[in-house]
Design goal:
Number of helices of chain A: 13
Structural class of chain A: alpha/beta
Helix content of chain A: 25-40%
Order of helices and strands of chain A: HHEEEEEEHEEEHHEHEHEHEHHHEEEHH
Strand content of chain A: 15-25%
Number of helices of chain B: 12
CATH superfamily of one domain in chain A: Metal-dependent hydrolases
CATH architecture of the largest domain in chain B: Alpha-Beta Barrel
CATH class of one domain in chain A: Alpha Beta
Strand content of chain B: 15-25%
Number of domains of chain B: 2
Number of strands of chain B: 18
Largest interface: A-B, 62 and 54 residues
Shape of chain B: globular
Distance between the termini of chain A: 53 Å
Oligomer: heterodimer
Distance between the termini of chain B: 42 Å
CATH topology of one domain in chain A: TIM Barrel
CATH topology of the largest domain in chain B: TIM Barrel
Radius of gyration of chain B: 23 Å
CATH class of the largest domain in chain B: Alpha Beta
Order of helices and strands of chain B: HEEEEEEHEEHEEEHHEHEHEHEHHHEEEH
CATH architecture of one domain in chain A: Alpha-Beta Barrel
Largest sheet of chain B: 8 strands, mixed
Shape of chain A: globular
Radius of gyration of chain A: 26 Å
CATH superfamily of the largest domain in chain B: Metal-dependent hydrolases
Number of strands of chain A: 16
């Protein structure tokens, strides 16, 4: 039995991520299948200021979209007869925003906080496609997000990249072909400096030294585990019979994937010392840390981060909420960019995700990034960090038509998203949103009215029952309190 | 013993850092009594149309003259602001500025006392003039704030006071809290009780629920307590006015005297429409001068707020919408809706480290329908008016305190830089801890491999 049976889907996705030919075929099939079921019409966005991110800004430009892909970018493009046309005169189009650190669309808790290594749990298993935060992210121009486990463990749960296909079932959210990830966390959160969970014993690690040893210990075990499977597979391949396979370990499997380069490490961190610690440990075990998340002191060790080929995904201007955030500076993006680190600006928070364009703009003021460099912080750079830059992150022929249309330059606090597209489909349309509000209000009123009437009816029935208590059997006397609590719930 | 000594050392180190940061950075230089003239600037006085090529003259900490063709006093220090713009400094009317340094470290947080009736506490007492937050906030063009005790936020450690103490209006510059003071006793803080069936328990990191009837009982009890305190305070005020010194002093009740006399406004924290309605009714009945703080659902009660002339200091427009079925831009459209209804508004950060986002909060309201002029005034003149400080602050007019900023553009926009900043007429540095760290690491030699 293959040890990756359980995570078969994930493994296939990971495999496809490496084999572009196979991925291309698979995607073509998939696109055809979904296109047959619900074909997206060709779409022409006209007369917009196009912020391509990789090829400068095109004034009064057009974008032609077919089958969810950008097929042409230029001036006065000819649209097929059946194409929908969006007149974006006076408006700005940029690539959809990619949020490299998000906790939206998660059903229930985001932390499996009981153990220090929780690599066996997977956020992909608890995606909630009905979280209104998905729609609100879209209204903020976000089209894809890295959905992460929380930061209470040195090695946390498995993560997933999604496209914000609002209205589609959870199974349709994951970004096809994107490598899965795993959350690591360093510093105050995994060592639980700022809170105690009552009723739970103190947990190792309680120091940054312990965090390092927790990670080193887990990867030492993962390396041994990998070896036992490699040996076994080698002997099977050599034709040996009746071998007993090693016992599967669901905690170590994702770590083996990290060692094999099939799973990205996204590491929550703050202080310069712990950043260097993790880079050392990763080197020791021969894997690369894909992104450092938050990495508030990244600017202090930017050369080292750049040399490790590691990305940095940060907040724009958060600071001072805890000791390890006291030397955070809003110049972090600029300083690291100048030293060759791929930097992105993320949300970590459903509200912050609604204005990531604005957060990126702050890097122009703090440290003087250019307009394009600032745009990259929320488009191409997070795409690179998530390994999806061949698909998204800039406006180029062949890329997915994941786009945002703003009423003005998006690097302004006055810019408002007009439309957000994913795979060439409009998933957010401000005009429609505004037009639909009255109907929603009406629906809410009717539902409330219905609930009120139902509650009244229940109350009447209860009164009627109470009028004839003598008919009740003795054992039913225990009932009234239960009914009361039910009623409380309905209210 | 070992641990406690270590803790102490950490503390000393920590405090040491604060002191170094504080003394090295951006305090007002000793005042030499020279005049300053800012010339050739576009001046947004907020008391009339902008002046295209104007001069502001500052004398003795005050604005001595503003306009076109104003003569420059001899010996005045002249700042040629050609191509730049002058505005009143921004005013953040709900912050924990100076009361909290690092949110998660209780030792550095002095925002919220224990107990529920603390009218005698005064924010200015615990404002740390060398707080690193002050110069950082100043760099965003904010020249004065209201430091508000018991104002919630991340730094409140979960405590709730019904009466939380007195908020102090302070300049964001000064060697001592005394030098920073604008008005020590600017407003009394009241946290209006909510009928709350759900609460988040930080110790278990989970939501706790209780039946509505229990929540209502607790609410009624809190309102009764508030009523009793107000009535006791009123009696106390009568006795104090008529009995000379022949009565037992009570510091808490004494602190309430200006409140029950209607001289000190009450800053009432409430967000839900029901709570706002109850709070307005309570303040009307008790004859208290109410300022609403928060106002998450103020739009639902805008007519009430207008008819009772209750101004609102709005919590951030960039917060997450309160209800799942709220429009995604509910908090951003609310300011325009309130102004259209005739409600006086101001924007507040309700925070410490995010105070510098004040302009951004206002700009987002403009993007959703608020007139730009109102947005600008809602972070300058309107907070001053709401707190009764518009005689001294909020516009660039002769005689007012010279708190002003010289910028290269719209002070609400994200990319605008503050080139010069004046507090009490003093050119005040916008350098800060973060800029210092930037410059230090900008100059780090390339790391050796």
């Amino acid at each position: 039995m293959n040890r990756r049976r359980l995570s078969f889907g994930v493994a296939v996705v990971a495999l496809l991520g490496l084999l572009t030919g196979a991925r291309g075929v698979a995607r073509e099939k998939e696109t055809k299948a979904s296109a047959a079921a619900n074909p997206a019409p060709a779409l022409l966005i006209r007369h917009a200021t196009i912020l391509t991110v990789t090829h400068g800004t095109l004034e009064n430009g057009d974008i032609l979209i077919k089958d969810g892909k950008i097929v042409a970018v230029g001036s006065e493009l000819k649209a097929p007869a059946d194409a929908q046309v969006i007149d974006a005169s006076g408006q700005f189009v940029m690539p959809g925003i990619i949020d490299c650190h998000s906790h939206i669309a998660v059903d229930g808790d985001v932390n499996e906080g009981s153990v220090s290594v929780s690599s066996m749990v997977n956020i992909a298993d608890v995606l909630n496609s009905e979280d209104p935060a998905i729609y609100r992210d879209l209204a903020g121009g976000v089209t894809a997000a890295n959905i992460l486990h929380g930061s209470s463990n040195s090695i946390g749960g498995q993560t997933v990249v999604i496209k914000l296909r609002w209205g589609q079932p959870a199974a349709k959210l994951p970004f096809e072909g994107a490598l899965p990830g795993i959350k690591f966390a360093l510093g105050e959160n995994p060592k639980r400096s700022n809170f105690r969970v009552s009723g739970m014993p103190d947990r190792y690690p309680a120091t940054r030294m312990g965090v390092e040893e927790t990670i080193r210990g887990a990867f030492t075990a993962a390396r041994d585990y990998k070896k036992s499977w490699d040996d076994y597979n080698k002997r099977v391949a050599a034709g040996e019979k009746n071998l007993i396979p090693p016992r599967r370990d669901l905690k170590l499997e994702p770590l083996v994937e990290v060692l094999e380069g099939k799973r990205y490490v996204h590491a929550h961190c703050y202080r310069e010392d712990e950043i260097l610690m993790l880079l050392r440990v990763a080197k020791e075990f021969g894997f690369r840390v894909q992104t450092l998340q938050h990495v508030l002191e990244g600017y202090k060790v930017a050369d080292e981060i750049a040399a490790a080929g590691t990305g940095a995904s940060i907040f724009s201007d958060w600071w001072a909420y805890k000791v390890e955030a006291y030397e955070a500076i809003p110049y972090n993006a600029a300083l690291m960019t100048r030293r060759g680190v791929i930097v992105s600006v993320n949300s970590d928070d459903a509200a912050e995700a609604m204005h990531l364009n604005q957060e990126a703009a702050k890097s122009m003021r703090y440290g003087g990034l250019t307009h394009d460099e600032a745009l990259k912080l929320v488009t191409l750079n997070p795409a690179i960090q998530l390994g999806i830059e061949k698909r998204v992150g800039s406006i180029e022929v062949g890329k997915d038509a994941d786009l945002v249309i703003y009423n003005r330059d998006p690097l302004s606090a006055y810019a408002v998203v007009q439309k957000t597209l994913i795979d060439g489909r409009v998933y957010f349309d401000r005009e429609k949103d505004l037009a639909g509000r009255a109907a929603l209000e009406q629906e809410k009123k009717e539902l409330l009215e219905k609930a009120r009437k139902s509650a009244e009816k229940k109350a009447d029935e209860k009164k009627a029952e109470e009028k004839k208590p003598e008919e009740k059997k003795p054992e039913e006397k225990a009932k009234p309190p239960q009914e009361r609590s039910d009623e409380g719930g309905a209210r | 013993m070992k641990t406690s000594r270590m803790k102490m050392r950490v503390l000393i180190l920590f405090v040491g850092c604060l002191l170094i940061a504080g003394t090295a950075l951006g305090q007002t230089a000793p005042a030499a009594a020279t005049d300053t003239a800012i010339t050739h600037a576009k001046i947004f006085t907020l008391a009339g149309a902008p002046i295209e090529d104007g001069t502001v003259v500052i004398h003795d900490g005050k604005i001595a003259a503003v306009g076109e063709g104003v003569s420059i006093p001899s010996g005045a220090k002249v700042i040629d602001a050609k191509g730049l713009q002058v505005y009143p400094g921004l005013f953040d009317p709900v912050t924990q500025m100076g009361l909290s340094e690092i949110g998660a470290v209780r030792a550095t947080v002095d925002t919220t006392e224990t107990g529920s009736f603390n009218p005698d506490l005064v924010a200015a007492t615990a404002v740390l003039p060398s707080s690193a937050h002050i110069p950082v906030t100043r760099a965003a063009g904010i020249t004065e704030v209201l430091a508000v005790p018991a104002s919630g936020g991340f730094d409140s450690s979960g405590a709730t006071n019904l009466i939380g103490g007195q908020a102090s209006a302070i300049h964001l510059a000064g060697w001592t809290a005394g030098e920073m003071l604008i008005r020590k006793n600017a407003a009394m803080v009241m946290d209006w009780p909510e009928i709350e069936t759900q609460s988040f328990d930080f110790s278990t990191f989970s939501t706790k629920e209780k039946p509505y009837s229990d929540a209502k009982k607790e609410y009624d009890k809190s309102v009764d307590q508030l009523t009793n305190w107000i009535e006791e305070s009123r009696h106390y005020a009568q006795v104090a006015a008529t009995s000379g010194t022949a009565y037992d002093r009570d510091l808490k009740l004494e602190a309430m005297i200006p409140v029950v006399r209607g001289e000190m406004p009450v800053l009432v924290f409430a967000d839900k429409a029901r709570d706002i309605r109850n709070a307005v009714e309570f303040c009307q009945k008790q004859n208290l001068k109410m300022i609403l703080a928060g106002g998450g659902e103020a739009w639902k009660v805008k007519d009430l707020l207008r008819s009772k002339s209750v101004p609102v200091i709005l919590r951030p427009t960039l917060e997450y919408p309160r209800e799942d079925d709220d429009a995604y831009d509910r908090l951003m459209t609310q300011p325009a809706e309130l102004v259209a209804a005739g409600v006086k508004i101001a924007f507040g950060s309700f925070d410490n480290s995010f105070s510098r986002r004040l302009g951004q909060q206002a700009a987002n309201a403009v993007a959703h329908g608020l007139a730009y002029d109102d947005a600008l005034k809602a972070v300058t003149l309107y907070p001053a008016q709401i707190l009764g400080l518009d005689g001294e602050l909020g516009t660039l007019e002769t005689g007012k305190i010279a708190n002003l900023i010289v910028t290269n553009g719209d002070p609400l926009e994200l990319t605008t830089e503050v080139r010069y900043l004046f507090i009490k007429g003093q050119l005040t540095s916008t350098d800060n801890k973060q800029k210092d760290l930037y410059e230090k690491y900008l100059n780090r030699p390339v790391a050796t491999k």
